[in-house]
Amino acid sequence: MHTVLRSTAKTVTIGHDQPFCIIGERINPTGRKKFQLQLRADDLSQIVIDVEQQVRGGADVLDVNMGVPLTDEPALLGRAIKMIQTITDTPICIDSSIIEALQAGLEAYQGKALVNSITGEEERMDLILPLIKKHGAAVIALPNDATGIPYTCAERIV
Questions:
Q1: 60 phi and psi, to 5 degrees?
Q2: What are 3-27's pLDDT values in tens digits?
Q3: Which of 42, 77, 112, 120: CA 20 to 30 A from 131?
């Protein structure tokens, strides 16, 4: 099985018989206090630097997460995605646990996005999967539920 991601000008195919897909994970404020402060101040300049460095480093897809406390994450994620698409044609992986942020990101994205990461809790899937379907996105799903990630591979197969 293959998954095809698209931006406005570039396609990336992910599959077991495809070359390894490198997903740049740097556009994420987790553990980056200075970046968090910049985003709270509405300064998106670090995103430009992170995009350029990751693309130059060989990223096939850029993961974008704007989860910063005390900000409007949906608005910030939508703005970041629109800005990123003006500086690169690299496809985007939208990364948020906030449904409204996922929706804003999917609405802002031009192409077929990848959504990272949904979990197996039924109530979460009931909210997220309709968004995925509506926007024709692909998804990275974690095989966990309310009890956590199953320990063995056999337990992970539904």
A1: -85, -30
A2: 899 898 999 999 989 999 999 999 9
A3: 42
